[in-house]
Design brief:
The complex is a heterodimer of chains A (about 625) and B (about 180). Helices cover about 35% and strands about 15% of the residues of chain A. Chain A contains 22 helices and 23 strands. Chain A is globular. Chain A starts with a strand and ends with a strand. The relative contact order of chain A is 0.08. With about 180 residues, chain B is an alpha/beta fold. Chain B has a single domain, classed as 3-Layer(aba) Sandwich (Pyruvate-ferredoxin Oxidoreductase, domain 3). Chain B has seven helices and six strands. Chain B starts with a strand and ends with a helix. The chains are: A alpha/beta (about 625), B alpha/beta (about 180).
Chain lengths: ~625, ~180
């Protein structure tokens, strides 16, 4: 029985995993990868499969758990965003040498733009670095097909394979036909072989040689991996220009050439770029005088082509080296290249005059903000008020938006809110400077990578206040549960591990819990924490600011609703806009003062205590 | 059939994704191929939200600037922001004051490329029916009255009936119909 359904790209990947008989799927959420695991859960429930799923505490943990399943002979996958693969990089490098028994697929989702990431890094480079094959889908349907190919190759060659969908695949939607999912009966077994599974450096040399051999053989396969790698050259024909494209840019190039009816420009599609299909590339290069390489986001294919006379791309400044290759950018760069080669150009200019026109309108810049009622807003307001001179180290999550309230000074990577706090502390302490420091980190991020940094800070006698912003969910990526809730990926009950216990386990002696909606209580607690960090017998002080996310918990998060209004006492001092930045408080130009947008207001009532003139009151 | 490109714009929380879903599902139900591009994650928190819907045999999910046949905007400024997407002879439907839309500065450009503009005070209509969160449906109903693009009023209505949760079905249809009435006069 089959059915037609519109799938999110990440759903298409989930479907591909289950169609390929993947038995274990692990993940840590991160845009644009977050929906893969929930889609797997939805499909296994609807088809009654026994697939094991977990939200792991971080990407390395997700990687290792899935890898062990593959070592036992099962088919397994781990899913993460591109910077998550950095966290799992140690495992990846080693796993490439050791290899697996059952198929093992790493799904690492890239974010050209970037839309929701710290970097635009290219996972294909990570694949090259780790010496593993990589597949780069150009559409949701292709991603689904590639998962099956990846499992077969991974199992045949006993090597991990990376699937790297970019955001335009992950967050595209396409209609797919599916049905008849079945359990895979591959059984777990483990045969002792320390020379492989616990290889020492001497054996590693041998494994490295084996890996190189595997790559050579897979490279040969990639020469003929239709429909992922192929060209449309006519035999014997010569061309002034050819385009080599992979992944999402391949789809964009195809659409442009077909809209413009340009049959004079051949295309080499390369959606399986590593190990590099040298022969296929040579065949294409020899038929074209120039080859324009369009790939996201770095120079993987361009590096391998080597022919700097013939190749046009990032090194020759024909393709931008940062930012997403959206259709108008690709259109523009193809047009410019054609112009440079004195070939017939494309038909229009991509509406540049309209872009200039819109720039001139001075439309409001809409930066992302914390939601109305967000407990993080209350926390940042109080932290800033209690410690105005502090350095505010922070971390990755919704609360990075505390930057809008002046409550975030640094954001490096997952866990660095804590490690940068201790780093700052020792730098200033060395100069005998008493520099206040307040670190913030979310609950999920703390479970992900907070503990090692906190242990280190306590052990090395750092002095700072750590506020764990505990909204009892992983909010930014779509409300995935945390170990603090004790709910697992499939909704079943897991063991609840309270933050307090983990923090105590890191050696912290000052642990206090507060509801950040109570501004005064939190303010007092910060003052108490300051004393503790200044006390020679003190140490790192941890405050857990606990209040549920208003999006995840809705009504439950604001049990006592308070309708607020702004009175004539408002003098437009901007204090509430600069320090509180609630989207529901806006400047009413007709009234000449701040007003409350009642459709946006969450009625949390926190703003009742912030106005220096007392102009915000309960209606 | 010729490929049809939609751009849908608005603010986080206005229901852009739901409006896109209704159009996409209606297209698929009548046997058309679709590709959608959505905004998620950090970019979604209160910022400008855009989604693209392409109907027909296309490969990429993003609409190229200068090639949108239909622009649906749930907020006036978000309509202007996305003007560069409009194709020659495109159609623009916006939730904006009917008397002043589009603003002076953009009129010459829109006239030059032959864009037809239609506006409706969709927020007021939705609020008038005590459903301020359904502004998206009022605009969609309004749009359906012009019979532009591959999806009809009846097809959209059928999809709304199917995908709305039970408690919202009646009000969703009511707001959608009210928008349609505004467009049909």
């Amino acid at each position: 029985m089959t059915q037609k359904e519109i799938f999110l790209g990440n759903g298409a990947i989930a479907l591909g995993l289950l169609e390929a008989g993947c038995q274990v799927v692990t993940s840590y959420p991160g845009t644009p990868s977050s929906e893969i695991l929930p889609e797997v859960v939805r499909l296994i429930k609807s088809a009654g499969l026994n697939t094991y799923v977990e939200w792991s505490t971080n990407e390395k943990v997700a990687f290792d758990n899935a890898f062990a399943a593959a070592v036992s002979g099962k088919r397994a996958a781990c899913c993460m965003k591109q910077v998550g693969l950095n966290v799992a990089a140690d495992s990846l490098m080693s796993a490439a040498y050791i290899g697996n028994m059952g198929g093992f697929v790493i799904i690492s989702c890239d974010d050209p733009g970037p839309h929701s990431s710290q970097t635009e890094q290219d996972t294909r480079l990570m694949a090259r670095f780790a010496k593993v094959p990589v597949l780069d889908p150009s559409s949701p349907e292709e991603a689904r097909q590639m998962v099956a190919v990846a499992f077969d190759l991974s199992e045949e060659f006993q090597v991990p394979i990376i699937l790297r969908p970019a955001i335009r695949v992950c967050h595209a939607r396409e209609s797919l036909t599916w049905g008849g999912l079945k359990n895979n009966e591959q059984k777990a077994s483990f045969e002792r072989n320390p020379g492989r599974w616990a290889a020492t450096p001497r054996f590693r040399f041998i494994l490295h040689g084996e890996l190189n051999g595997k790559l050579k053989e897979i490279g040969r396969r990639f020469e003929k991996l239709d429909p992922f790698n192929f060209h449309d050259l006519k035999p014997g024909e010569k061309y002034p220009l050819g385009i080599l494209a992979g992944g999402v840019p391949y789809s964009v190039v195809r659409d442009i050439l077909s809209d413009e009816d340009r049959k004079d420009i051949p295309v080499l599609k390369m959606c399986a770029p590593h190990p590099f299909p040298e022969g296929l590339a040579k065949e294409f290069m020899s038929a074209c005088e120039k080859v324009l390489v369009i790939e996201e986001t770095d120079t993987v294919i361009e590096y391998f082509l080597r022919d700097s006379e013939k190749v046009l791309g990032r090194f020759s400044d024909h393709v931008p080296s940062e930012g997403e290759l959206v259709p108008e950018v690709v259109y523009g760069l193809i047009n410019k290249t054609l112009e440079g080669l004195q070939m017939k150009g494309l038909s229009s200019d991509g509406r540049q005059s309209a872009v200039e026109l819109v720039k001139g309108l001075e439309l409001p810049i809409r930066k992302p903000t914390l939601c109305p009622g967000c407990p993080h807003r209350a926390s940042f307001f109080t932290i800033r008020k209690a410690r105005p001179k502090a350095i505010f180290t922070s971390d990755i999550g919704c609360y990075t938006l505390g930057i809008n309230l002046g409550g975030v000074d640094t954001c490096l990577d997952m866990g660095a809110g804590i490690t940068m706090a201790s780093g700052f502390y020792h730098s200033f302490a060395q100069d005998q400077v008493d520099q206040p420091i307040v670190a913030t980190i979310g609950d999920s991020t703390f479970y992900h990578s907070g503990t090692a940094g906190l242990l280190n800070a306590v052990y090395n006698d750092s002095r700072f206040i750590l506020v764990i912003l505990d909204n009892q969910t992983t909010a930014m990526t779509g409300m995935q549960p945390t170990p603090g809730l004790g709910i697992r990926a499939d909704g079943t009950k897991g063991k609840m591990i309270p933050l307090e216990r983990v923090v105590a386990g890191c050696g912290v002696d000052f642990i206090e819990v507060v509801d950040p909606y109570d501004l005064e209580a939190m303010n007092k607690l910060i003052k108490k924490a300051v004393e503790y960090t200044n006390d020679p017998a003190g140490g790192v002080a941890v405050i857990i600011a606990r209040h549920p996310c208003v999006i995840a918990y809705r009504e439950e998060a604001i049990p006592q609703k308070k309708k607020v209004v702004v009175t004539e006492d408002c003098v437009e001092c901007n204090f509430c806009h600069d320090r509180f930045e609630c989207p529901a408080l806006y400047k009413d130009t007709d009234l000449g003062r701040t007003a409350v947008d009642q459709t946006l207001c969450a009625q949390c009532g926190v703003c009742l205590d912030i106005c220096p003139k007392g102009a915000i009151i309960e209606a | 059939m010729e490929n049809i490109n939609f751009v849908l714009s608005g603010l986080g929380g206005q229901g852009i994704l739901f409006m896109t879903k209704l159009l996409a599902r209606s297209a698929v139900d009548k046997g058309l191929k679709i590709l959608v591009a959505e905004t998620h994650g950090m970019a979604q928190r209160g910022g400008s939200v855009v989604s693209h819907l392409r109907v027909g045999g296309v490969k990429g999910s993003l609409v190229r600037a200068g090639s949108a046949h239909i622009l649906l905007a749930l907020e006036e400024n978000e309509a202007y922001r996305n003007i560069p997407f409009l194709a020659k002879g495109g159609k623009l439907y916006a939730n904006a004051p009917t008397t002043s839309f589009p603003r002076e500065e953009v009129r010459p450009y829109l006239e030059k490329i032959g864009v037809e503009c239609h506006s409706i005070q969709a927020s007021d209509i939705a609020a008038g029916l005590a459903a301020p969160m359904s502004t998206n449906l009022a605009l969609l109903g309004f749009f359906s009255a012009f019979q532009e693009g591959p999806i009809s009023y009846d097809e959209l209505k059928e999809t709304i009936t199917q995908v709305s949760p039970d408690r919202l079905r009646e009000i969703n249809l009511k707001v959608f119909d009210k928008g349609f009435e505004w467009g049909a006069v």
